[in-house]
Specification:
eight-stranded mixed beta sheet, Rossmann fold, alpha/beta, 285 residues, 2 domains, single chain, N-(1-d-carboxylethyl)-l-norvaline Dehydrogenase, domain 2, globular
């Protein structure tokens, strides 16, 4: 199977990595040509780290890296793909533009997946003549570590394409769950509420970010606290999701707190900028 990944950023490079590790041929593309080399560097760093920790052999890591090629032209990237995974920004208009271009160049039988974490898959699928081909395939960050893939099925989805996405997720070593298309699906709807409440607690001086996270990790068995998760996801991404859910579902628990808006305004977006609720080491460029 050939997999094309559109978007080489925080999520896209990780999706490309796990697809290659599953044995698929991968083409990674991005509208920003300058994003491709750093994406490959991050994949190489992840694989090298797995080798150092004894999780992979050097030969397996090298073989996975060899399955990945980069392509600056979207049409060339999706030509011949069995599965196209879109991992661009959470903006419906941008996603519509991507899928309109994909359907012109991809094989007619290709499954079209979107990595959206909250936008309506039904609305995204409106961009293509055959919406049954479109399935939500929501990965979690960091993709090479997190086990869950949320498979989002809208009312017009073709069961064959849903089954293909589930099969691919399992081949990647993930645990897929299938959910109905609704605002926030299952994971974002719950996760955003927890994250926003943790932010309000910081804002109100209840406790610091590390102690709030430790409360959820040690008291409730969460592998990572909600504020550290927010830093990994990106505060700008969390803000966009919260605003969308607040518009769609209402309720004060989805209203973004001032601390989140202020940090995004200052460019404190989390790990990708070196500062969010935590300080982070600089990222490879």
């Amino acid at each position: 199977m050939k997999v094309a990944v559109i978007g080489a950023g925080t999520m896209g490079h990780g999706i490309g990595q796990v697809a290659a590790m599953a044995g698929y041929g991968v083409t990674l593309t991005d509208s920003r040509a300058q994003a491709l080399d750093p994406a490959l560097a991050r994949i190489r760093e992840n694989l090298d780290g797995a080798v150092r920790r004894g999780k992979l052999t050097a030969d397996v890591a090298a073989a996975a890296l060899a399955r990945i090629r980069v392509e600056t032209d979207l049409a060339a990237a999706v030509a011949g793909a069995d599965l196209v995974i879109e991992a661009v920004v959470e903006d419906l208009a941008v996603k519509h533009d991507v899928f309109r271009r994909v359907v012109v160049a991809a094989p007619v039988g290709a499954t079209l997946a979107t990595n959206t974490s909250s936008l309506s898959v039904t609305r995204i699928a409106e961009a293509v003549p055959d919406p049954g081909r479109v399935v939500g395939m929501h990965f979690f960050n960091p993709v090479h570590i997190m086990k869950l893939v949320e498979v989002v099925r809208h009312d017009r989805a073709d069961g064959r394409h849903v089954a293909r996405v589930v099969e691919v997720a399992r081949a990647m070593g993930k645990e897929p769950i299938v959910v109905r298309d609704s605002p926030g699906f299952a994971s974002s709807r719950l996760g955003v509420v927890l994250g926003l409440e943790a932010m309000r607690m910081v804002e109100q001086g209840v406790a610091g970010a590390e102690d709030i996270d430790k409360a959820m990790e040690l008291g409730y068995g969460h592998p990572m606290g909600p504020l550290k998760v927010t830093d990994l996801v990106g505060l700008d991404v969390r803000l966009a999701i919260a605003e969308y859910l607040h518009r769609e579902l209402g309720g004060g628990h989805y209203a973004p707190p001032a601390i989140l808006r202020d940090k995004v305004r200052r460019g404190e977006l989390g790990k990708k900028t070196g500062k969010g609720f935590y300080q982070w080491p600089s990222q490879p460029s």
